[in-house]
Amino acid sequence: MKKIFVLSFISAAIFANAQSIGNSPYAAFGIGDVKYDNSADVTAMGGISTAYISDFNNSYNFRNPAANTNLELATVKFEVTNENNFFKSDYNNLSVTKHSNYISNISIAFPISKKIKFGMGYQPYSSKKYSLLIKEDAANGDVHANYFHGEGTLSTVQGGFSFQISPEFALGVRTNFYFGNLYDLDELTSSSSELINGYETRNKIESFNFTLGTSYQKKLKSDHKLTLGATYSFGNTGNMETTYTNSTYYYINDTKTNISIIDKNSSTDKQLIPSEGSLGVGYGKDLKWFLGGQFDFKKGETVQFLGKPFVYQDSYRIAAGGWFVPNLNNFRSYFSRVIYRYGAYFEQGSLNINNRSVNKFAITAGATLPFANKTSTRLSGIDLGIEIGKRGTVQNNLVNQTFVNFRIGINFADRWFQKALYD
């Protein structure tokens, strides 16, 4: 029975009418569909960021706040994402396509001094949107119906500082504030009953944690370089306030009427945002090319979902990627100055359904298109990225999700907040 319920739940959830950030059926569980924390240029390289120090002076690395040695310009980024998901299930041979568009990154960063850099940004962290109705015929002739509904979004605001300890070694710290509301509803009724029994869960989240980062870059012969990096996120403070309400009622014009509360209680929990760590290594040539690899680990947590504990398992992510530019100084050929990016990743997900991990893999690509007016003090441009991959499987009564996601971002960079010097 449990397997049938889970199968029906994730299969039917893909027919939710409203488009949202979390339009995957797997977003229905727990805190929703968690997005990977990166900007468009880094996403186009498979998400490698821990050992990625940009060769250019117009980009801030939020993922590893220590990896910002070369930031010299003030930079403002605005990015949007277009998601295109294609779902398939062996349950009733379902096949559905869903799309969504949303703002995925807003950030500002600038150097405070030659050794201290600062950045602040906003990103969605997770989202859910699902509606599901399951009907069953009882032995006595009644028809039992279960209606499940959920919605909500968690967002994060980040602030990071980079400290250059020496020409080769840097430390960084990032504060992360998570906020939002999540709502889940389970309603049970039958054809012989006038009342609906509803179990409602409301979560209000306001939580902080911190990310520490370190980076080391060694200059080698012939302008080559070796880069190492590590990050660790920890220290949840704040609370997730959860309110559970078990009640009976009926609807008149979509409004609950004659509400009778059977039970109501609340709880608080700090263990919502998991601790995670990352290790990275990279090798490249100044202003020519870069190749890196990365390993991420995220600790599983238990959250409340429809009044019961929902367990996220430990997960990991392996990624590789990089960039190259044909000739940055060739002003006769625009495309020689374009930065081309590539990458791939595999992720063992935190969801485990029907004793099977919901895994994900993808290949990525993209480019940074510089604006025509390019000087040493102005390096604005457009970041493009594409991500093609799959998540899940039709085996073990699950859903196969194939996706093609596009990202586009505008980066305005210039020398702001710095006094001009005159002879």
What does this structure look like?
- The strands form 3 sheets. This protein has a 14-stranded antiparallel β-barrel with strand order 2-3-4-5-6-7-8-10-11-14-15-18-19-20. The protein has a two-stranded antiparallel sheet with strand order 12-13. It has a two-stranded antiparallel sheet with strand order 16-17.
- The chain has a single domain (2-351, 379-414), classed as Porin (Beta Barrel).
- The protein contains 2 helices and 20 strands.
- Mean pLDDT is 86; it is low at 1-19.
- A hairpin with a 7-residue loop joins strand 19 (381-391) and strand 20.
- It has helices at 2-12, 40-43, and strands at 33-34, 74-89, 95-111, 116-137, 143-164, 169-190, 196-219, 224-252, 255-269, 276-285, 289-298, 302-305, 308-311, 315-324, 339-348, 352-353, 356-357, 360-370, 381-391, 399-414.
- It is mainly beta.
- The protein is 4% helix and 61% strand.
